[in-house]
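A.,

Following up on our hallway conversation. Structure tokens first:
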């Protein structure tokens, strides 16, 4: 288990679709453990594979630090697929480890159904709502190359442009490892 650098907005891997995982092997399990360590070290609640440079369709979630979710078991989503999103939408402020300190109001479905594989290669279908649904949708977005700036309105983008550029240039101080400046 290791803490690995988090990719930052502007890193190419974050704009690409991740690849379906064909085999759940020891290497993948090791990567998943590293993802949990990295996420917890950065005080995050979710982390997608491409946020640690992995071109794999996987994300992890641990909400035990969130009020009301203390008994929630950490989860691994391998090859997730959003089956259904509610028509009811909710706008809530979100942050992202790949966009340190940036916060923006993001509209997401209030509830979802998601299909995925667990680490034992069992297919699972989960109905989630509220904060859990939001975190799943946020992490799923990473796997298809989307991030908060892709989900916000033009006015918010203009307001956050300077902050986003600082992040891309690594002109930020964070208390977790991030990737080196690219190009």
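Then the amino acids I'd put at each of the 183 positions:
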């Amino acid at each position: 288990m290791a803490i690995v650098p988090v990719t930052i907005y502007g890193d190419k891997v974050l704009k690409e679709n991740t690849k379906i995982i064909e085999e759940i092997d020891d290497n993948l399990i090791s990567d998943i453990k590293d993802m949990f360590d990295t996420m917890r070290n950065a005080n995050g609640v979710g982390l997608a594979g491409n946020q640690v440079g992995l071109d794999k369709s996987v994300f992890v979630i641990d909400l035990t630090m969130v009020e009301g979710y203390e008994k929630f078991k950490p989860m691994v989503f391998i090859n997730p697929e959003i089956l259904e999103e509610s028509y009811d939408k909710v706008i809530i402020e979100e942050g992202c480890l790949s966009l340190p300190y940036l916060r923006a109001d993001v509209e997401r479905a209030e509830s979802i159904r998601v299909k995925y594989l667990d680490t034992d290669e069992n297919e699972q279908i989960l109905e989630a709502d509220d904060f859990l649904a939001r975190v799943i949708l946020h992490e799923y977005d990473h796997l298809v190359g989307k991030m908060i700036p892709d989900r916000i309105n033009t006015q918010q983008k203009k307001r956050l442009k300077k902050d986003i550029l600082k992040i891309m240039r690594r002109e930020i101080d964070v208390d977790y490892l991030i990737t080196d400046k690219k190009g």
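DSSP finds four helices and seven strands in the chain. Curious whether your intuition agrees with the design.

B.
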